[in-house]
Every structure is written in structure tokens, then in C-alpha cells.
Design brief:
7-stranded mixed beta sheet, globular, alpha+beta
Length: about 270
Amino acid sequence: MPRTELTIEDRKRIGLDILDEVQRVCRLLDLDFYLAYGTLLGAVRHKGFIPWDDDIDIWMFRKDFDVFVEKFNSLCQPDFRLWFYTNREDYPFNMPKVCYLKTEIREKNMKRIEGIGIWVDIFPIDYLSEESKAATPRLVQLEKQRWMGLYRQSNISGKLKLFFYGLFSRDVSLSDRKRPAAYYTKRIHELHSCTEEHDQVRSPTSVNSYRLFYDASAFDSVLEVPFEDRTYPIPAGYDSLLRTVYHDYMRIPPKAKQKMDSHLKQARFIDQA
């Protein structure tokens, strides 16, 4: 089957189509979502994508996130699919992705994974209880173990990096690579999940994310804002959220830093025969 390389503009356009499908299903299920991270920054600062970025991230509170993960594949159009540890054992990432199945990608340092194409990342938001805070060291360790679990799905360069990571890290061992990454992802989400309301929230997305606490009140209301030629929801308290992550977020970085931090080695469109 012939394949065509995707341009950055192709990837942006497809990302928006995926986000529209996410929004359609959320409306069917009466679920809330919000633009997140660089996508939120792009909406506020550029009214669309950050010019040197091409991916899309969204947040969902855990109660909506769980329903979305369970129901999306039964309601979505045929060209889309949500992947997570809940529906495939070889899923390597720590958050679900809604993928466009007419595309395929290859990550740097990883083997190609069937069915993973251009995507939108779905990040859960959990309320932060005292128990959640106390569990932070264990969550950090599980995330590092999850990285080691990527060993079997990595190419040669990835395997070498993970081997030395396990060799010199105090928090993980080489034996952690024997379990798949999805095993650790499941444990992270079960340990971090909290729907009981508290003053702060957090998203379990990376080792660094466990240091980012947000005021839950930032999500008390929603704004609909332009993003490219469309409109999507953001938290009304976006200023405090963006300052937590990016600090002086309205300042445009110098030209030398306006580079796409792409983790993709290849992105292709699968032409239909």
C-alpha cells in the first residue's frame, strides 16, 4: 500500500480533525474537556497552534476521562481509534491517544506500533488529596519503571539508552524492563486516581508533572476561544495554569528556541487502495 509523507501542515490539519471528533463524542456523552499545555498556550498567545508546534493536548477530569476512555471507540467514526493500556497490552504511552487510522508514525528510538497514527493526547486531571501527595515518590518510581518497560518496544538505539538508564539509575533496575510499559501505566493511574474534590489538582503525565499542582478553582468555569479556524474550550483560570507550567508565558522565545521538539522519526499518510 503506497504511503505519502506528511507535512507539518498536514499533521496540524489532521490533529484538528481528531480534536473535532473528540469534541463530537464528548458532546454526545455530556463530557467536558479543555485545551492543555502547549495547545492551551497556543490558543491564548497565538489563537491557534504555536507556530513551531504541531501536536494537540487536552485535559479531562478523571470522572469524564474514565467514561471517555470506555465509550469513545463505540461512538467514533471508523477512521479514529482510542488506544490505552485498557484495550491493548502493547500500548507504550502513559496517556491515551486518539489516533487517525489513515496515518502511521514512527517514534524516535522506538519500533513502529501498529495502529498508532497522528494523535491527540488525553491527559486526566485528578484532585490532589493528602494520600496523593504522600504517594508522589512511588508515582515517580513507577514512571521511571514505565520507561524501562519500553525496552522491548525500542529499536537498537532506544535499547542502549534504556540499558544505561537502568544501569545507573537508583530508582529502577534492569529487571524492570521485563514487564511491558502498560503494566506500570495501569499502576500509575490506579494509584493517582482521585475524584473526591480538593483544592488542588494534578495530572500524572511524567516525572516532572508530579511537581505541578494547579488550583482546582481554575477549572470552575469555561471560556470558548478561537483556535485556528475553530473554537474550543479552555479553563477560565488559564492564566494561573499557564504561569505554573510556562511562567512568563506571553513572552515569545528568541528565534533560536523556536524549534519543533518533534519526537517523530516519520509520519505518513496511508493511501487507500
